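Late entry, written up from scratch paper. The run itself happened at the end of the previous shift, but nothing got recorded in the book at the time, so transcribing now.
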Amino acid sequence: MSTSVLKFDNVSLSFDGVEKVLDSVSLEMNAGDTLIILGAAGTGKTVMVKIALGLLKSTSGRITLFGQDVTHFTEPQWLTIRPRIGMLFQEGGLFDSLTIEENVAYPLVNRTKMTAEQAKPKVEEALKFVELGHTLDKFPSELSGGMRRRVGIARAAVSDPDLLLYDSPTAGLDPITANRIMALIIQEREIRNATSAIISHRFQDGHMMANFRYNPESKQLERMPEDSPLRQRTRFLVMHDGRIVFEGNERELDASRDPYVSKFSMHRSIH
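Output as recorded:
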């Protein structure tokens, strides 16, 4: 039986009681699912993630995390459940005044009451995973954009969360660096069996998640078999004007004749 990780039931959010940023959004992610959330800027993708983290409160609807109704959670209650969620913010979201070690240790030191010394082995392991073990004493300004994004992945995963949320992990990166970032996210998914939601404007990001897996023996990505459970548990969701206008697998996305939805499909992306 599948275990529900995140569920939205008719969730809406309005600002000043007028502008609807989210409009009756319903979705569910079970353990091991991968959800690719596509859409143009301003369609409500990041707002959904902020609601899932408790950083924004919905105007109406119901939000469930790990089987708990968190719709009306207070901030102290959110502090008990956020450690189970890892978040990669846009552009990496690192603290400029902290070293890379301090940045990655932040969720452990501030959410689990670990000391910096106790957190250090996990921090070193997380940075080694993203091939940045040599950057502990550096500051974010000393790293490239792609490296900062990899540090963000390390920070998101350092506490072994049950749910990983990635907000535009490849935005502003060149194609080679973007593919490297997605390869790390795929590796993270398979090694930790993580439930993952990825916000993106690039169909290529979703295509990689839906078609490739990490082989720990060869330490390389390889194409999934057609009947792979991972492929079956990967869904695409397209947002437009705060609403979900498509949800389905990659083939269904590519077959859509909706002019807006087809902007994010394979047959449009390769031309």
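The chain has a mean pLDDT of 91.
(Scratch paper discarded after transcription.)
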